[in-house]
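PROTEIN–LIGAND DATA SHEET

This sheet pairs a single protein chain with one bound small molecule, guanosine-5'-triphosphate, given as SMILES. Inputs appear in the order they were entered. The predicted three-dimensional arrangement of chain and ligand is reported afterwards as a token string under its own label.
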Amino acid sequence: MTDTFFGRGTVDTVKCHVNSLDTQEGIDAIFVNAILTGIQQRNLEQAWGKPVLDRVGLIIEIFNAHAQTKEAKLQAEFAALMYKKSRLVRVRGPGGRYGFGVGGEAEVVSARGRGSGGRGFISGAGETELQLQRRRILERKNQLLSEIKEVRRTRELQRAARKRHGGSDGQEIPTVAVVGYTNAGKSTLVSAVSESFLYCNDRLFATVDPKLRSVILPSGRKVLLSDTVGFISELPIQLVEAFHATLEEVVEADLLVHVLDSSAPNLNEQREAVLQVLGQIGVSEQKLQNMIEVWNKIDLREDFVGDGYCNEDEVPSGSEENNDVASNKLCEEDLLDYDDNEDEDFEQSGKLGEVIDDQQGNYSDELVSGDEQDSWIDYNGSLVGCGSAEVQQNDPSNKWEVVRSENQFGSESAPHVKTSALTGVGLQELLELLDEKLKPQKTIEKDIFDRKWRPPRTEDTRIAVEQ
Ligand SMILES: Nc1nc2c(ncn2[C@@H]2O[C@H](COP(=O)(O)OP(=O)(O)OP(=O)(O)O)[C@@H](O)[C@H]2O)c(=O)[nH]1
Ligand SMILES: [Mg+2]
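PREDICTION REPORTED AS:
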């Protein structure tokens, strides 16, 4: 079973469906909503006679299709390349010969033949198919890494320039990164508050290029809002890493705004997934605690009463029925358990194929090896304990502090602000909140320097005065 992911019965049932549907409608490929190992993917393709896409493969395809800028294209290609590398599987062809791909095509690439060595031949003579594939991937990988490095340097320079030049009053322009689950409405919200157009669409990963938009807050202060790539539950770490250059905007931002689709039935899971990714890319605990949580699409909630505020006593969380937009998401519930140990698979299966290069689910060694290490990823792999993390309400008068605890919404925690990016509800409140969040730091600093020094009052002196 581990060699095909599904049991024999399921594989046969799907095969029957595929055959009957194929004659009627024509099927191009089959999507399995799980992460398959290279050998499982190959075996399923053989069994079903169709290309099989798993979760990572599909996300990479979407990233590729949506990438507009050079940066996004580079990152998408890098993710695709690393994925391909993890899928270098040798299969036994119809004639009993080992080869690559369904037909075992292009197996031997040199005059010297397969397996005859070839080290030291610059032309690649004597290379096996595997060696050739590996060499090509390595060459392209190095090229992509150096280009991505360049992209990161450019971003750093741009960030530094933004800080140096500042706003019209000479002040630094703060950056606010808008993060959230894919399809939560981030781009729509950023467009709405900045009155500019950003590409929004009811599809997954509509945005893969980071976009900055300037917004004037009610106080007159200018901020830059950065719209980011959407997150997803079970986002493979390799994709997070591939998009690290983009996600650096999030790590470097002065403030984070977490946009949630309040109508999603799995709102809590989506929140956890986002917090997990934020932890993985190295966002500090302090920034997470300071983060603004926005419940967007409030107009889709049953408890929406027109002014954007819910009658919180009456209706609990969003339900399946009011969630047309969210229903096409890759939901956690849809996921099947999987076993990603390819070596084990090979030992156990042995019959259909052989895994040659096992990088499944782990490119981090690629990314942090050698001199690439400091230039590429500072990945510590730690997760934020988001589920139980509590932001304590120190000051009851501080209306922006949120306590993540059981409330009238059951297990849902309270948002800081509720918005509808489509109808405009809550947008002014969000801008005021940004003002509020960005202001105090300056005030506190000023306060510290302006205050005159006085000797500290000890317990004794105070008692003496009281007497
Ligand atoms: N009803 C309703 N729909 C909304 C709202 N905000 C966004 N949408 C819709 O939700 C869909 C997704 O919006 P986007 O802004 O593209 O979402 P996103 O979070 O940027 O998505 P990615 O870029 O894929 O991560 C679009 O069809 C929007 O029109 C809202 O407040 N109410
Ligand atoms: Mg978007």
